[in-house]
């Protein structure tokens, strides 16, 4: 069966939660998952994700938490290294459990966990990785297309390029600065080729999940710096997907071949926005190889991660997208959430979610997915940051819903 026209997405507001495979599944050795680039990457306190939240074995408990929460959808990711090891059966079980609970499965194919073997062959610096990713997408879709409601090929390609290949803060830990830009095009191409594979398998709805941030100039004189950053963070990924072009400031640095942009800009059924905070920029100081410098935003409260809490930034992002792309498909907030130290009252998390849910509704989006259902392995920060609506004791794996979980349940019910 081949895709011919956009599917009909739910006409009601879709409430959901999000997680990712590497951050919660665990079961590395026991289930035979192949290594990913993150398995050997250093994390805060020497933590690793070999057990994480043991979701691989406790997924029924976690689905029960979602059922009690009242969400209509669960956005999870599929582990490319696990599928390479031949284990798609886990996702069969998870999807069936979700459907039995009345929860729509929303599957992300790539949430940063590149198989180490793929990275050893060049990773996203190598154009062939885009085709390898599409082949993987086809294998997964053949198995799950009849039961998964919505599909996201690539999560936050901007973060893979900027943090993984440009600055080295994330796996695979390369600090290539502008020499990392080929990864942006190959990630976009992987998205487009995966969309083709998913359509060919007859999936119901395909979109994306791009991280967006308003780029605020520190002064009127810093407008060029803010524009340069926005091109790198926002438009390097949205422009090719939604308009079949790259920003003029970057196109000459990208290894684009004839026909690539036609593949990348295949029509989507929805557009996912991951939003956490705005970014403030100023012109670079002497000797800085980049055309901008980041400036603290200190007039707003901050999360435990130190990120400024600016709900209006979410409304700003959606408005920017709708102004730039007249024919943008329905927009969903596919991630939004906050990390705070655990407290019984959980007042900061509730205030954050209340403000951002209100901002999402004001922006006219079609759904809101909280990051995250449960406390997870937060990449290079290990277990030091807690994003969950549900507290996880990583020693015992005991799950305890926070006050924000109950707040979200009541908000959904209203």
Automatic annotation (TrEMBL):
Pfam families: Glyco_hydro_1 (PF00232). Gene3D superfamilies: Glycosidases. GO terms for molecular function: beta-glucosidase activity. Keywords: Glycosidase, Hydrolase. Coiled coil: none annotated. It comes from the Bacteria. Its EC number is 3.2.1.21. It is an enzyme of class 3 (hydrolase). Belongs to the glycosyl hydrolase 1 family. PANTHER family: GLYCOSYL HYDROLASE, LP05116P. This is Beta-glucosidase. It comes from Saccharothrix longispora.
């Amino acid at each position: 069966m081949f895709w011919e026209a956009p599917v009909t997405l739910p006409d009601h507001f879709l409430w959901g939660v999000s997680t990712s495979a590497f951050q919660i599944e665990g079961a590395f050795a026991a289930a035979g998952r192949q290594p990913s680039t993150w398995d050997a990457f250093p994390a805060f306190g020497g933590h690793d994700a070999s057990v994480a939240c043991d979701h691989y074995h406790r997924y029924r408990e976690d689905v029960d938490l979602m059922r009690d929460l009242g969400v209509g959808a669960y956005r999870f990711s599929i582990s490319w290294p696990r599928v390479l090891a031949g284990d798609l059966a886990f996702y069969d079980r998870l999807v069936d459990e979700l459907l039995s609970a009345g929860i729509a499965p929303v599957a992300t194919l790539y949430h940063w966990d590149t198989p180490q073997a793929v990275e050893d062959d060049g990773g996203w610096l190598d154009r062939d990785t885009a085709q390898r990713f599409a082949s993987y997408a086809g294998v997964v879709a053949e198995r799950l297309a009849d039961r998964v409601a919505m599909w996201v090929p690539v999560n936050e390609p901007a973060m893979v390029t900027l943090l993984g290949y440009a600055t080295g803060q994330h796996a695979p830990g390369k600090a290539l600065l502008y020499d990392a830009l080929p990864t942006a095009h190959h990630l976009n191409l992987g998205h487009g080729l995966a969309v083709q594979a998913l359509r060919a398998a007859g999936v119901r709805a395909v979109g994306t999940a791009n991280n967006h941030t308003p780029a605020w100039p520190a002064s009127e004189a810093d407008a060029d710096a803010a524009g340069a950053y926005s091109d790198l963070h926002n438009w390097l990924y949205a422009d090719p997907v939604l308009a079949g072009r790259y920003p003029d400031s970057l196109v000459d640095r990208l290894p684009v071949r004839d026909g690539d942009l036609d593949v990348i800009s295949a029509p989507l059924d929805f557009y996912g926005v991951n939003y956490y905070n705005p970014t403030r920029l100023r012109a670079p100081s002497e000797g800085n190889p980049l055309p901008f410098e980041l400036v603290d935003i200190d007039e707003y409260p901050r999360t435990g991660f130190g990120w400024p809490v600016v709900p209006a930034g979410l409304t700003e992002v959606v408005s920017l997208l709708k102004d730039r792309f007249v024919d943008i498909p329905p927009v969903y907030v596919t991630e939004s959430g906050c990390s705070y130290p655990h407290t019984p009252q959980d007042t900061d998390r509730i205030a954050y979610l209340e403000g951002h849910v209100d901002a999402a509704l004001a922006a006219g989006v079609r759904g809101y997915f909280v990051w995250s259902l449960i406390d997870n392995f937060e990449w290079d920060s290990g277990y030091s940051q807690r994003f969950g609506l549900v507290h996880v004791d990583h020693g015992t794996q005991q799950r305890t819903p926070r006050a924000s979980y109950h707040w979200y349940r009541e908000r959904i019910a209203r």
